[in-house]
Hints:
By secondary structure, the protein is of the alpha+beta class. It is 21% helix and 22% strand. A hairpin with a 3-residue loop joins strand 1 and strand 2. Bound molecules: guanosine-5'-monophosphate (5GP) and zinc ion. Residues 1, 4, 6-7, 46, 96 line the site of zinc ion (ZN).
Amino acid sequence: xxxxxxxxxxxxxxxxxxxxxxxxxYAFYDIDPQAPTHxxxxxxxxxxxxxxxxxxxxxxxxHIFAVIASLAKKLGxxxxxxxxxxxxxxGQSVHHxxxxxxxxxxxxxPPG
Length: 112
Ligand code: 5GP
Ligand code: ZN
């Protein structure tokens, strides 16, 4: 999608600090980290949020979770949190599906 920030990051039109890339997904460090380690994993296909996950794209989302587990191992993350905000009230500011991976500090529950 031409006016989507994360589509522009995938295409390289906007620079990012890449963690990992394959045919289906792209991972990069968050520009405003909320933990010592904070990266985002996104599908290359433009999907608005978890609310648009369906039988056609669910395999991509499953693949993203396998990538998250693999990256966490590779980066030596023993404990981490995976978060996806859906919609404005939950705090979604970029409307391209993304999973935050946060690690390296104590975290509270429930989240704010
Ligand atoms: P959301 O608020 O939608 O759950 O998460 C969007 C995330 O994207 C935020 O954590 C924000 O810091 C991050 N972000 C926004 N713009 C950029 C950017 O240009 N580059 C990078 N690396 N992260 C961004
Ligand atoms: Zn997009």
